[in-house]
């Protein structure tokens, strides 16, 4: 049985002071009525402050980062390493978000290096895949997404895969207000699970959590969560609106 998993990707929003206030307010409002695993992914500069509040206020949430480099240290000005994230008590890390792929040219090869490095440092990756509108309209969405899964997971061991979360996020639905229909989203998540079964085995595929992401909001979360192969959500815009995010978590 896969535990539902909802993560909030704050993207490049909130100063560390705003992050402190938001996390305190969140801790006050949030009741984990659904037994769902919940993760907050603030910007790097707020990780430490958010972690302190999670610990001191005993908030039932995990901490995630939005990105990382694959090396432990070295001459990579401006980058943050998996070692640094582990030392801060970060548990999850989003890898290969479509905004990283689009604006920072992250290829499947880079995503693969980062996923491997995350596992090496005991971080659990939330690996993002998803097609553009042009690819969806050409009818090649499934082929494209399954190729991403294949290339991004190249050489990754079965024992690690069990700790992997995959976020299926159609690029055309991110931050646009357009959501994939729950049927279409579930079809893609099922196809991803079949692909994992083919690469590894059905038992492993059964353990991997697959989130949907793309304009998730209080009005569509229940239907998405009722689908057979959608195990949770990666939430962007709505995760920095306290009322919306807590409503999503009470789907
Ligand atoms: C995201 O950032 O992963 C995302 C899905 O954003 P939004 O919910 O705003 O579409």
What does this structure look like?
The chain has 251 residues and is of the alpha/beta class. 43% of the residues lie in helices and 15% in strands. It has helices at 16-29, 47-56, 82-87, 98-103, 108-120, 133-137, 141-152, 158-161, 182-199, 202-207, 221-225, 242-249; strands at 5-9, 37-41, 62-65, 92-95, 124-129, 165-168, 209-213, 232-235. The chain has an 8-stranded parallel β-barrel with strand order 1-2-3-4-5-6-7-8, surrounded by 4 helices. It is globular. The two termini are 19 Å apart. The model has no long low-confidence stretch (mean pLDDT 97).
Which value, in Å, is the CA radius of gyration?
17 Å
Structural class: alpha/beta
What series of H and E elements makes up the topology? EHEHEHEHHEHHHEHHEHEH
Largest sheet: 8 strands, parallel, barrel
CATH superfamily: Aldolase class I
What is the name of the CATH class?
Alpha Beta
Cα distance spanning the termini? 19 Å
Total domain count: 1
**CATH architecture type:** Alpha-Beta Barrel
The low-confidence parts are none
Q: Quote the beta fraction.
A: 5-15%
Helix fraction by DSSP (H/I, runs of at least 4): 40-55%
The count of strands amounts to 8
CATH fold-level assignment: TIM Barrel
What spatial order of strands do you see in the largest sheet? 1-2-3-4-5-6-7-8
Distinct small-molecule ligands in the complex: phosphoenolpyruvate
Number of helices: 12
Estimate the mean pLDDT confidence.
97
């Amino acid at each position: 049985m896969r535990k539902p998993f909802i993560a909030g990707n704050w993207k490049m929003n909130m100063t560390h002071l705003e992050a402190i206030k938001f996390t305190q307010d969140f801790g006050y409002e949030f009741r984990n009525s659904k037994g769902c695993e919940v993760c907050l992914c603030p910007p790097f500069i707020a990780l430490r402050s958010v972690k302190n509040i999670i610990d001191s206020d005993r908030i039932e949430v995990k901490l995630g980062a939005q990105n990382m480099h694959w090396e432990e240290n070295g001459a990579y000005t401006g980058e943050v390493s998996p070692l640094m994230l582990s030392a801060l008590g970060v548990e999850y890390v989003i890898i290969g978000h479509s905004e990283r792929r689009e604006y920072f040219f992250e290829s499947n090869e880079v995503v693969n290096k980062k996923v491997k490095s995350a596992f090496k440092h005991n971080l659990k990756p939330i690996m993002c895949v998803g097609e553009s509108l042009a690819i969806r309209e050409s009818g090649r969405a499934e082929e494209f997404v399954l190729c991403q899964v294949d290339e991004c997971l190249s050489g990754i061991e079965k024992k690690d895969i069990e700790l992997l979360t995959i976020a299926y996020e159609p690029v055309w639905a991110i931050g646009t207000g357009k959501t994939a229909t729950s049927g279409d989203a579930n079809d893609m998540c099922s196809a991803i699970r079949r692909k994992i079964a083919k690469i590894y085995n059905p038992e492993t595929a059964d353990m991997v959590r697959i989130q949907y992401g793309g304009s998730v909001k209080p009005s569509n979360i229940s239907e998405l969560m009722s689908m057979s192969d959608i195990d949770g959500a990666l939430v962007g815009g709505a995760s920095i609106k306290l009322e919306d995010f807590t409503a999503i978590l009470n789907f």
